[in-house]
Amino acid sequence: MKKVSIIGATGYVGIELIRLLHDHPEVEIKDLVSKSSAGQLLVDIYPQFRGSILNDYQLRAMEDFKPEESDLIFTALPHGVSQNIVSELYGKGTKIIDLSGDFRYHDVKVYEKWYGVKHKSPELAREAVYGLVELNREKIKGAELIANPGCYVTASLLGLLPLVSFEKADLNSIIIDAKSGVSGAGRSLKENLLFTETHNTMKAYSPGVHRHSSEIEYVLNQFLTGKYKKTFGSLKDQIDLETEEKAKILFTPHLIPIKRGILATIYLDLEEQSSGSEIMELYQRAYNKERFVQVLKDSLPEIKNVAGSNYAQLAFRYNKRTNRVIIISAIDNMLKGAAGQAVQNMNLIFNLPEETGLEATALFP
Amino acid sequence: MKKVSIIGATGYVGIELIRLLHDHPEVEIKDLVSKSSAGQLLVDIYPQFRGSILNDYQLRAMEDFKPEESDLIFTALPHGVSQNIVSELYGKGTKIIDLSGDFRYHDVKVYEKWYGVKHKSPELAREAVYGLVELNREKIKGAELIANPGCYVTASLLGLLPLVSFEKADLNSIIIDAKSGVSGAGRSLKENLLFTETHNTMKAYSPGVHRHSSEIEYVLNQFLTGKYKKTFGSLKDQIDLETEEKAKILFTPHLIPIKRGILATIYLDLEEQSSGSEIMELYQRAYNKERFVQVLKDSLPEIKNVAGSNYAQLAFRYNKRTNRVIIISAIDNMLKGAAGQAVQNMNLIFNLPEETGLEATALFP
Amino acid sequence: MKKVSIIGATGYVGIELIRLLHDHPEVEIKDLVSKSSAGQLLVDIYPQFRGSILNDYQLRAMEDFKPEESDLIFTALPHGVSQNIVSELYGKGTKIIDLSGDFRYHDVKVYEKWYGVKHKSPELAREAVYGLVELNREKIKGAELIANPGCYVTASLLGLLPLVSFEKADLNSIIIDAKSGVSGAGRSLKENLLFTETHNTMKAYSPGVHRHSSEIEYVLNQFLTGKYKKTFGSLKDQIDLETEEKAKILFTPHLIPIKRGILATIYLDLEEQSSGSEIMELYQRAYNKERFVQVLKDSLPEIKNVAGSNYAQLAFRYNKRTNRVIIISAIDNMLKGAAGQAVQNMNLIFNLPEETGLEATALFP
Amino acid sequence: MKKVSIIGATGYVGIELIRLLHDHPEVEIKDLVSKSSAGQLLVDIYPQFRGSILNDYQLRAMEDFKPEESDLIFTALPHGVSQNIVSELYGKGTKIIDLSGDFRYHDVKVYEKWYGVKHKSPELAREAVYGLVELNREKIKGAELIANPGCYVTASLLGLLPLVSFEKADLNSIIIDAKSGVSGAGRSLKENLLFTETHNTMKAYSPGVHRHSSEIEYVLNQFLTGKYKKTFGSLKDQIDLETEEKAKILFTPHLIPIKRGILATIYLDLEEQSSGSEIMELYQRAYNKERFVQVLKDSLPEIKNVAGSNYAQLAFRYNKRTNRVIIISAIDNMLKGAAGQAVQNMNLIFNLPEETGLEATALFP
């Protein structure tokens, strides 16, 4: 049994990691570190663990935490904070999976521009391996430090990557209209997250300027310039993606009155006429061996079909009238968009079957 | 007091009309016609009217209804059905406001293509006046038959019209990603409208092929070819919109787990660089005298700020990086998107102040 | 036009008062006083008023407020705070309707015990008139200071009062299981009021020890000892309620994931067998002339049938097996449970028809 | 690996069984029988199973189903229908767990009175073992036919049983006010289960006359007359429960706008004064060895803490003022209230650890 710990255990992502690790047959939870709740029983904050093996688990302070006793550490901390902790932990033989935005850009200039924070460990940012499993599986297996992708980014990239490698796609036309449940905002005490302000309503926020825009665009462009080997559904056997062409995307997130789940509706122009079957071939090539990505044909993704599971569901429609493709992508933001993908990464690092501890299907109704 | 009647009184739109007319100081409800519930008391189906002046109101069958006793009739019926009823009622001196899709296209070929139904009264379709008040106020005042716009269409056109007359807008780039509460689907017994199937989830439907696509596009193109006089926010004093250029839009609706409200997020490319202030000027010209359209500057529309009211709230963001405009438009689908706009039309026809009976602000929280 | 002001205008009750007064044909809003938001535009905090006559309304600080310029002042403040403000305002000729718990008990000892706060104006508490209109209409008309009842209390008393005067009722058997929407908790920044903590779940709170217990019991016992004249549905023509018998109630509130509305399910033992028709007679006597109380016979109250309106809907079932009565009472906690009832009180004080500005029916769906 | 099948696989309970069995390490799903959907792929009806081992699973018709190929069959069918199927399946060596109401009463007269249906297999009803694990564990282990308890009944009995054996409890005073999520109503096409009719509202139904009343009362009285051996928390070492005294309960269910979960608030009079610690001792005796029942002390149960898990959470408050006990009980109606408890029963029958496949904690947020 591998020993794993979580720093930042009492945020929503932390608690979701605990839930998954609690059910995982090959790992043992070592330490749960929480700044705000050190010394308290886990069940006094999250009563859903009462009766489980975590019934008597006491949260630990950072100063009492010995990283070397764990085989792997998840850091589920705010950006800015995470870099400091990770740079202390790094290089001591313990693997790290970081769930913040701090290590998702090799080039910290992009990070600094969009996050408005100075990056103190640019060399670590260059070392970090981007943890979108379907894109980067091989590198993940040997990584010391994983940057777990953003939730919106996961939903968007899974939908986009096959088409981005399609030579007929207009890389400047990408528009992503994404909708997220409220858990994405974390357990923060803000007036606009109160039930009375959020229920039975909906809004857009940060239209065109959300941080995840930059992450989506950054990874797409890394992909286009050949930083990621996999051809990802190209219709040719070999394709030279070392291109000067760059994708420029427009991303607008919305808050919807549900707890979990992201639905991203993505729009893309084609430069020549295509067909549904040609595009379907791209998606099937990209994902037909993937355990956690489903490409639907006759139906459309719905959040309820993935919420509570690590699956992504995708569908697309080719709109001949406008020569555009509409791609719809649904994930659980807490699972494939955060803790589930982190465990998938952990499984790869530990050389376990990728789906270990992640086989639950959506909780419905 | 004017006498008004409703045919199709027990659907959700019918009941919303009853609610508004019940509170309206200048009209009196004459007959409420319902095929399915004729003979029953209104309060036995909709108990919210208990105690009101409609406490003892009995629903009437079509065969017992005498149209000539009403000054105005609202028809709130399914498309296809409505044409038959309206063509019987028309021309007898009673004004008609039809809330179906049947009379929204002067050219019935477009209707027939998108609705898959033969139109039996093409001449009436040509007579009908399109009831988007902000676009067509003058013609509405003298109309015999109003085609009340679709809910998605109202939200979309109010957001788009000022920009469509902007010479820098790429009329082929328009993408509308719209989200609607479940009341938009009416009171129909379908499995996918059950609470357990709709709550805490979200989905897209009819991506790119929803009927309201055609209505949005049809009206935009009528507008572009000068069928509607108003310049609608053009920055020049005079603008010749008699253009051959046509708009082609892509529209995708989504179902969200709220009762009422539509949020439309609209994307549009510009052909040249512009600025927020230049675009704001267009919106202000278009709407600064409009009672029911609010253009927000520093905040964004939310459904809760309009649900329960006849207001539309709009905002836009000019995204310099991609040279696109993101427009966000929020309405209550039952009010500005249906019954409220119908009453606004009625007020114009009766030469009443436009806001009579429509002054309620959103019900919040 | 009467001039009215609100102190505490930006809480949820304050904002609901503004909404009602904005639509009220016989009053004019004079000052909106807010400690936290003085100097700001109302629409910057509550954008739903954009476009209305309150579009340019600026919130005022207490020190800039001149009470004598208003005919009536609503105080919508936390308990404890309200007493101080009301005692300053009182006696200067301006009527006051207080929506806090501070003046609901003539005997401040009860207040002090349940609220854990010293009462600084016991003589004012003795002067205050309890504003449950259906119980106390005549006294309200001439009152200087109204104590507007608690939301749970209104739902409970309307359901209970007819039966409490019934000689067969066991006054020690009353159990009230009440369920409230989240707006009842106000706009307070508490973790347990976040959407993620409140949606798709339910809980009880303060079982048996909520403050409203004491208010329900206090008023019932005042009623039993003849402090309120009306016989309230007794089956005898004259009934001497000056009894030594006292009611002792058990009250448990619950939080449900809706915005507005209270449903109270009330249980009461009978000492002798009775019948549905005998009990119905009590309810009909009590309420058949009441504009805002509906007694249902064949159906049961639902929150959706009253939410958005000032109506209460009641029904009861006599359970012969156990010789108990189950009473179900539904109100909108923001309206009949707070702001609506306050306006109803105001109408009485101003000698207006009781329903003025309160005729809206429930907003449905 | 044991082979198990489900008859009635596509109702909500059926689908929840599939989800649990899919994750269960010791069983293999053999046949999924569905009358309405025979021949279809499971994933075409419930897309959440796409990508799982059930990806290609085809639903089977009853006539193609061979019961003898399964070790155990779950019947998840409407009452009335279930008796017919079960009586055909019974006695052929395959164990049966029935989730309908058909076999929950040894005395079919009670069943016939409350269900309004003639029972065709009274002898089987006498054979069936009542599957409330905490009450009846030993008998369940050897049973051929299990009657899985009703959802409301499970929540109520777990809360009540310890106190019912308490000699100071007034057995005629029990009032149960229960609240259930909408999944409890199944996937039935009824107007009152539409999202628009159910969301943001709440109602009571069948007050005092719901079928589960009779099941709760029946089991309580069986228990009181010594039909179940366990003393269930009595404070004496030995207690003679063979009493003539009978419990008479009053039960009122409510529908709340959540998907899953039941919260039951139970009221009970005591005949003598007691104390919180005395009562706590009863609950601890009853449940301190139970894996799936948690007794909370300082906090109260909430549905979110159990939804998605097989746990029940209980708390009580002794109200000294009225000498009553308030018990609050929360379960997931689909799990501990249906499919989870059925799997717990199956584990006992197969001599597996009771928690096998049931260790998931609540899905939160």
From TrEMBL, chains A, B, C, D:
Active site as annotated: C151
Coiled-coil segments on the chain, per record: none
Recorded catalytic activity of this chain's protein: N-acetyl-L-glutamate 5-semialdehyde + phosphate + NADP(+) = N-acetyl-L-glutamyl 5-phosphate + NADPH + H(+)
Gene Ontology BP term (one): L-arginine biosynthetic process
Keyword annotations: Amino-acid biosynthesis, Arginine biosynthesis, Cytoplasm, NADP, Oxidoreductase
Enzyme Commission number(s) of this protein: 1.2.1.38
Family the entry assigns: Belongs to the NAGSA dehydrogenase family. Type 1 subfamily.
Protein name: N-acetyl-gamma-glutamyl-phosphate reductase
Originating species: Halanaerobium kushneri
Lineage summary: Bacteria, Bacillati, Bacillota, Clostridia, Halanaerobiales
